[in-house]
TrEMBL record:
InterPro entries: DUF3027. Residues 274-317 are annotated as: Disordered. This is DUF3027 domain-containing protein. It comes from the Bacteria.
Length: 317
């Protein structure tokens, strides 16, 4: 039977008249003066009534104090059952809670913040694979260790000496990677990363970078050339280097960002090469030739001719 069918539509008279008892309970649970007028009373069941009072406390607009009172069968006294603060129809409520992993956005991390990753993160995969157990014929295998193990007395002596030197038995010390294992080789080569990017992680990163600095962006559509031929492009290593690089043009819009090779901007190194300014030639001074300067105009052409006397004065014969 549902709860709606067990409720009585007509509130119990004694429970409905216990407004003062309900107010005292609400004022005891709340601060004095924040319990307002009596709003309503509803029947929760046989001889069970809930009284609602306004809440005048700042920050709780639309909330109501709900006090439930009850009366036992054939009893003449009403007792208190529960006091709680409930939101009304127009109450100011907090937004629905969202996990931090869904609220996190790029740029939210600050200095000192830690961003944990799940153990089964699809973007990551183990950095090295293979069994760490050496083959049976290896010098560090368990079978070879049993063959060359010392006697019990000698082993106890070595254990005691090691304990004096290290401050504890070797079994309590941090275990180092087995020599010859894939873990030890990876650590020796500087490649011991617990996890690396998976194919899914590579594709997700490539799609994100393509959306930010890819061929379909307005800047690339208006660019005179692509980044693949730009001198400011720094190529990436690995498989991502086939499609992406880093922009090193301090005046470009993508300086320091990963850009697609098909991206482009107006700062392309070969898009508009400025020509060198022209250099004027040096003036030529000829001091070994005298140019004639006619002083009188000729009779037929109107030019100036030089007379005999003037020619003598100028040094001509």
């Amino acid at each position: 039977m549902s709860a709606a069918t067990t409720r009585s539509r007509t509130p119990d008279r004694l429970c409905a008249e216990a407004v003062d008892l309900a107010r005292e309970a609400a004022e005891e649970a709340a601060y004095p003066g924040v319990v307002g007028e009596h709003v309503s009373a509803i029947s929760e069941g046989d001889r069970v009534v809930t009284h609602f009072f306004e809440c005048k406390e700042p920050g709780y607009r639309g909330w109501r104090w709900a006090v439930t009172v009850a009366r036992a069968s054939r009893a003449k006294f009403v007792t208190l059952s529960e006091t709680v603060l409930l939101p009304g129809t127009d109450a100011l409520l907090a937004p629905e809670w969202v996990p931090w992993s869904e609220r996190l956005r790029p740029g939210d991390m600050g200095p000192g913040d830690l961003l944990p990753t799940e153990a089964d993160d699809l973007r990551l995969e183990p950095g090295f694979t293979g069994e760490d157990t050496p083959p049976p014929n290896s010098a560090v295998s368990e079978e070879m260790a049993e063959r060359v193990s010392v006697s019990g007395e000698l082993a106890e002596l070595v254990e005691a000496e090691d304990a004096e030197i290290t401050g504890g038995p070797p079994s309590s010390l941090p275990a180092a990677p087995l020599r010859g294992s894939i873990v030890s080789v990876a650590e020796e080569l500087g490649m011991r990363r617990a996890r690396v990017l998976s194919r899914y992680g590579l594709h997700v990163a490539a799609d994100r970078w393509e959306d930010s600095f890819g061929a379909k962006t307005p800047m690339a559509q208006a660019a005179p050339a692509a980044c693949v031929s730009c001198g400011f492009l720094v190529r990436l290593g690995g498989s991502l280097g086939q499609a992406f690089g880093v922009c090193a043009n301090e005046f470009g819009p993508a300086d320091g960002h990963v850009v697609s090779l098909s991206y482009g901007c107006g700062g392309h190194s070969e898009a508009a090469v400025m020509p060198k300014p022209p250099v004027p030639s040096q003036p030529v001074v000829d001091e070994f030739q005298v140019d004639p300067m006619p002083l009188r105009p000729a009779a037929d052409s109107g030019s100036v001719s030089v007379g005999a006397g003037a020619a003598e004065d100028l040094g001509h014969s």
